Amino acid sequence: MRIKVDIACANSLRVLRRLRLAPQEAMQPLLQPMCSLRLDPLDPGDADVLMAQARQLRLVLSAGQGSRLLRGKNLGLLCETEDADDAILFRLAAQELGAHVAHIRPSLSGLRSPGLSQYTARMLGRLYDAVECQGLSPELVRQVGEEAGVPVYDGLASPTHPTARLAEPFDAGRPRGESRRLLLQAALMCTLL
Fold first, then answer.
1. Crossing angle of the two packed helices 44-62 and 176-192, in degrees rounded to 10
2. I need a surface site. Which of 39, 118, 126, 159 has the fewest CB within 10 A?
3. Half-sphere CA count of 193, side-chain side, radius 13 A
4. What CATH number does the domain containing 148 carry?
5. Which domain holds residue 78?
6. 1-14 pLDDT, tens per residue?
7. Which of 184, 179, 117 is nearest to 155 (CA)?
């Protein structure tokens, strides 16, 4: 896993050079996809990769280039209320990167009915590039993930998600909410590019 981290750090140096030397090139997405990254459970090697990607993303965001990274991506937010802290965090993190986020109430989605859940999960996969599930059973999230064909997150914006534990060592004098949002954005970038 050390090789992945070194690659991500080398990418960070390229980001700095591009931002300093060629602003027009900085408009292109600079982060590298890490499709093999597993978010739940998060092993130490993947945590290192996610932290390196978050550092690289911080450089891109500080240069004002973040709003183009996920432009054109449509994300589904499957939760009962969009006013909950987790829902707000997910929406803000995704929108800051340029993604569109649609709120879907699970009670209206047909996921509670066994016969409709397979059909509904497939439809979600056609409509969205990824789906964040909040407040659903792990079994239901697993079923949606198997059928949707797109990344399906199980409470990625939740304070109990494995990625949330990375915010403390990543803070380094920054507000905890800022670090948590940055790690959430890095996870989105790693799984959606």
1. 100
2. 126
3. 20
4. 3.40.50.1370
5. 2-192
6. 344 444 444 444 44
7. 184
Number of domains forming the structure of the chain: 1
Mean pLDDT of 25-50: 64
DSSP state for residue 164 in the 8-state scheme: G
Question: Which residues have a Cβ under 8 Å from the Cβ of 91 and sit 6 or more positions away?
Answer: 77, 82, 101
pLDDT of residue 21: 34
Q: pLDDT tens digits for 56-72?
A: 998 899 888 888 999 99
Quote the pLDDT of residue 187.
Answer: 93
User: pLDDT of 149-172, one tens digit each?
Assistant: 999 999 999 999 988 888 876 656
Sign of the torsion angle spanned by Cα atoms 59, 64, 65, 68: positive
Question: Measured between alpha carbons, how far is 42 from 123 in angstroms, rounded to an integer?
Answer: 28
- Cα–Cα distance list, 148 to 101, 115, 119 (Å): 17, 15, 9
